[in-house]
Amino acid sequence: ITPLTNGLAPGMSVRITNRDIITNATGNFDVECEVDDILSNNTEFEDLLLQTGRFPDGEYLFKLQAFNKENQQPISDKATVTITVTTPSPISLITPGNPLGMEPSEIFDLYPNFVWYSNLTEYTIKIFELNEQTGNVQTDEDIENLAPYFERQVSTTSFTYPTDAPPLEDGNVYAWQVSANIVSPLNSKEEVYKSKVYSFKVSSGEETNPDDLLLINFLRQLNADNSEEVINLINNGFSVKNLRFKDSEISAEDLTNILLRIANGEIRFKSLIIE
Fold first, then answer.
1. Quick check: helix, strand or coil at residue 98?
2. Which residue has the higher pLDDT, 175 or 1?
3. Does 95 share its domain with 175?
């Protein structure tokens, strides 16, 4: 990087984008760029940067150094910077609840653990109370127009409802959604990523086995061909003696982790066997 004007002073902050580096269009600087060990065809890589405005996913090592424009001698130490580029993934809710439009799943915990999947880093979780005052909400947009019952910024993909939050009342139905704001590399504007809306009902649990409800919620989200057959059996009083996954016995609590692994592509659902 070589300054082309005399109006630049030590300590100044200079913003150079990936497009500037490829096109050498920084205005005040001359940038010599060599793309090594990324693609066999460097021209192909440069064209991709110009078309998309971003680097492909991966880890990149940048070595930067300033030079005197008169004699091309280095006038700074060489700085080495590692940057990891990740394409934002959709936000997929895991538990609790079912997608809006389905029967709300029942939960027994007044302080439930909300779990979702995404590779983003900062999220906003919103919980909405659905009652007579909210009217007949049928779409995600209907829910988003409501005032949140509870809202919190978090930096993980799970969140336990806090004890100091407004209480979740027994018998009430709630909906929840997770969103994230990211800055677009194309126009430096914020884009909002939103999950679908899930709904759940808080229950005292006097009549239904909590493990059965975890299994029902799992089957509805799995959407297997014979899921409804199992759900009907459970609703008619049949109990599940054991669950097996990859030839190992698992508990009902393990089903949430399986849904999470399916959502992030770690495993793929093949079949559901009823014996």
1. strand
2. 175
3. yes
In angstroms, rounded to a whole number, what is the distance separating the alpha carbons of residues 275 and 272?
10
A 10 A CB-CB count for 263 gives 21
Question: Residue 183's domain is classified under what CATH number?
Answer: 2.60.40
The span from the CA of 177 to the CA of 125, in Å, is 6
Round to whole Å and give the CA distance between 194 and 216.
25
Same domain, 213 and 236: yes
- Which pLDDT tens digit goes with each residue over 41-79? 566 767 777 777 677 777 877 777 777 777 778 877 888
Residue 182 bridge partners (DSSP): 191
> Which of 205, 222, 241 corresponds to the end of one domain?
205
Could you tell me the pTM of the whole model?
0.62
The Cα 75–Cα 3 span in angstroms is 11
Domain count across the chain: 3
| Domain limits for position 237 | 208-275
| Least reliable range by pLDDT among 58-72, 113-127, 134-148 | 58-72
Q: How do residues 7-24 score in pLDDT, each as one tens digit?
A: 556 666 666 666 666 565
H helices present in 28-160, as ranges: 42-52, 140-144
80 backbone dihedrals φ, ψ, rounded to 5°: -115, 125
| Domain edge (last residue) among 168, 184, 205 | 205
